Amino acid sequence: LRAHAVDMNGNKVENPIDLYIYVIDMNDNRPEFINQVYNGSVDEGSKPGTYVMTVTANDADDGTTANGMVRYRIVTQTPQSPSQNMFTINSETGDIVTVAAGLDREKVQQYIVIVQATDMEGNLNYGLSNTATAIITVTDVNDNPPEFTTSTVSEPSECWALWLHITLSPEPNGAGWQQNWEGMRFPTTTCAHSHFSFSQPKGPREKILHFAAAVDYEMNRAFMLTVMVSNQAPLASGIQMSFQSTAGVTISVTDVNEAPYFPTNHKLIRLEEGVPTGTVLTTFSAVDPDRFMQQAVRYSKLSDPANWLNINATNGQITTAAVLDRESDYIKNNVYEATFLAADNGIPPASGTGTLQIYLIDINDNAPELLPKEAQICEKPNLNVINITAADADIDPNVGPFVFELPSVPSAVRKNWTITRLNGDYAQLSLRIMYLEAGVYDVPIIVTDSGNPPLYNTSVIKVKVCPCDENGDCTTIGAVAAAGLGTGAIIAILICIIILLTMVLLFVVWMKRREKERHTKQLLIDPEDDVRDNILKYDEEGGGEEDQDYDLSQLQQPETMDHVLNKTPGVRRVDERPIGAEPQYPIRPVIPHPGDIGDFINEGLRAADNDPTAPPYDSLLVFDYEGSGSTAGSVSSLNSSSSGDQDYDYLNDWGPRFKKLADMYGGGEED
User: Fold this and answer.
1) CATH topology for 369-466?
2) Where would I find the beta strands (DSSP E) of 347-486?
3) Please, which residues bridge with residue 457 across strands?
4) Signed CA dihedral, 326, 332, 334, 336: sign only
5) Shortest CA distance to 131 belongs to which of 37, 46, 240?
6) Where is the signal peptide (predicted)?
7) Which of 500-506's residues contact partners 24+ apart within 8 Å by CB, and which partners?
8) CA-wise closest residue to 114 among 138, 97, 131, 137
9) Is 666 left (phi over 0), alpha (psi -120 to 50) or beta?
10) CATH architecture under which domain 267-361 falls
């Protein structure tokens, strides 16, 4: 600190002085290890005093005092084998070294040591402590030779592989882990391939012994050999043991059912296409390697894409089932390929496959086709030409050069067209005449190939003749005209389209106008004045009993008028027109005055009322016949009750339509 002395006015009275305060350390921090876990290693068999690793702990207290002086010690060791004190530690430096002999990786591969660091110079009563873990791995040295688990192995097998197992003590991938394997001698073998090879399926502890070639039971039935294994690295010094191990191997070969095989696979034959059905092509037979087994071999088709072949199931003879065509899609590079199966009747059955390849030699069996099928040309010559060629499914020498010519019939073909040869594959078709009307023309052309014998074909090319511009290109109108429609036809079609569109437009306008008028009429009618739903028509009265028994002759029209004229006045048929003077109706003026309309209507009404001949004729109903009575009796027996016992008040609850009845019968004594 710096101290200043001043008077009441702040004036300096003394020079400033420095005051020093020294902080005395206290033991308030534990030692801290740099790592909580330390890893180290030491070789097995190491001598006492061999360095292993160093552990370090730091103390934050003053190192010049006992508070910061750290000391180390080993607290525990796991496992305590072969001794509980296999390691020691330098108390000041933290170096861990071996203190006893007997480190053996094959017995103990790892030790876990707990190290304690204490300050106050290691005083456990006053100092503070902390611990860390030291993991010590015992590394391997080559101190054990390999050993076979058994000295002799007998293995019945197919004589192609054998498992060999050895016991290895060294650590995996260590110096003593790699071995040298070799076959030493073959006392009884008669195999031409007198050597073997080894492979490693799982690890150096196991090997598979392979024959260098397949072993055949029919050739060798047993093998005996000696196998030796040794370490690649020498044994550690001081080890009094052999560095190698040997084992005798006896191998017995057992016979198994082997599959038949085709000696020639793939088998190639050559023949011309088009051979007839049933032709014998070849015999494709298989061999059964099992000489000591009496087995039969049967043949069948496995793959025949075009179904062109048959095979004899007993002897393997192959015949054609259809005509072989080189131009078929099943042919690749002139070769047709089929696969056959040969199976024996062993236990279990075995089978082998063979492939037959048939090279088809081409014959001239396809006529050439003209190309292109369609073209266009100008209606005037010397503007453009049509280049034509031909396509032939055959191959050389049954293709080009081609011969192009026009047929003599019809004569118009050679009159209008001409062909000019360019080379063996191409020619030009052009107009012979100076002008040809626009349209589509079918031009037949005869194309002949160069096969032996040659084949020809008459192909038709559709040529569109149209007007062209100065560049020789067909114009748009000309293209349409060439399609078969003239200018007049095109104009007619356009007019029809316009008329149809106009009719559709007028119909739409009329429908909209009609809908608008309908909507306007609906608005002019008051919904309360619309009586269409308020007028009810009742025209059914029903029949009685005796009323159905009537004389239909009374309703028939009489043939003469004598009975009508002689009938008593005032009595007549309802379906007859009355006989009498007809009243005179007023004549309507040609130009009526508005004031005379009412008088005209009234006069006409009076004349109609006084006209007995005016329809309907049944206005006056006269019943001449009522029947002989009714089985129901008289209705006079239905008298009204006046006792007053009947209560009709419920009629008031039936609504306004029964109000009249309620007033008549439901009024009580007051009514």
Assistant:
1) Immunoglobulin-like (2.60.40)
2) 351-361, 369-371, 374-378, 386-391, 403-405, 417-421, 426-431, 439-448, 456-466
3) 447
4) negative
5) 37
6) none
7) none
8) 131
9) alpha
10) Sandwich (2.60)
Contact residues for 207 (Cβ-Cβ < 8 A; gap 6+): 163, 164, 166, 181, 198, 199, 200
Domain chopping of the chain, boundaries: 32-139, 148-252, 267-361, 369-466
Is-cis flag, bond preceding 289, omega within 30? no
Q: What is the rounded CA–CA span in Å between residue 45 and residue 449?
A: 96
Q: What is the CA radius of gyration of the chain?
A: 66
How far, in Å, CA of 589 to CA of 583, rounded? Answer: 19
CATH fold for the domain made of 32-139: Immunoglobulin-like (2.60.40)
Q: Which residue has the tokens 């005996």?
A: 224
The residue type at 358: I
User: What does the block give as tokens for 212?
Assistant: 């260098």
Least confident of 284-288, 489-493, 529-533: 529-533
Task: Report the alpha-carbon distance of residue 148 to residue 220 in Å, rounded.
Answer: 27
Residue 308 in 3-state DSSP? coil
Question: For residue 457, is pLDDT > 80?
Answer: yes
pTM to 2 decimals? 0.40
Read off the pLDDT of each residue in 609-633 and give the average, rounded to a whole number.
59
CA distance 248 to 150: 9
Which class does domain 148-252 fall in?
mainly beta
Beta sheet of 196-199, edge-to-edge order = 147-148, 161-167, 206-211, 196-199
Q: Which class for 635: exposed (0-12), middle (13-18), buried (19 or more C-beta within 10 A)?
A: exposed
As given in the structure block, the two tokens for residue 493 are: 């079609």
Q: Spell out a b/e string for 94-126, using b for 16 or more CB atoms within 10 Å of the CB, else e.
A: bebbbeeeebebeebeebebebbbbbbbbeeee
- Sequence-distant (6+) residues with CB within 8 A of 370 are 388, 389, 390, 445, 447, 457, 459, 461
Tokens representing 118 are 């204490």
Quote the tokens at residue 137.
């791995």
Q: What is the pLDDT of residues 275-311, one digit of tens each?
A: 889 899 889 888 888 777 778 889 999 899 999 999 9
Q: What is the pLDDT of residues 27-78, one digit of tens each?
A: 999 999 999 999 999 988 888 999 999 999 999 999 899 999 999 999 999 9
Contact of 631 with 648, CB cutoff 8 Å: no
Tell me the one-letter amino acid at 261.
Y
Task: Classify strands 456-466 and 439-448 as parallel, antiparallel or unpaired.
Answer: antiparallel
The answer to whether the Cα torsion of 76, 78, 84, 86 is positive or negative is negative
Q: Can you tell me whether residue 122 is helix, strand or coil?
A: helix
The set of residues, in sequence order, having a beta carbon less than 8 Å from that of 339 and lying 6+ positions away, is 301, 302, 303, 304, 353, 354, 355, 356
